[in-house]
Amino acid sequence: MGLLHFIDVKNIGSSELMQTSVVIAELGGDEQKLARECEVYYSLITRFREVHWIFLVPRVCFARAVEWLMRPETTLLSTCESIEAVADAIFLGSQKVDRISHSLLAAGREGSNDEENPPLLTASEKQVLRLLGKGWGINQIAQLLKKSNKTISAQKHSAMRRLSLKTNAEMYGWINSFQGLKELNLLSMHRESQQWNNLAIN
Question: Where do the coiled-coil regions begin and end (predicted)?
Answer without folding.
Answer: none
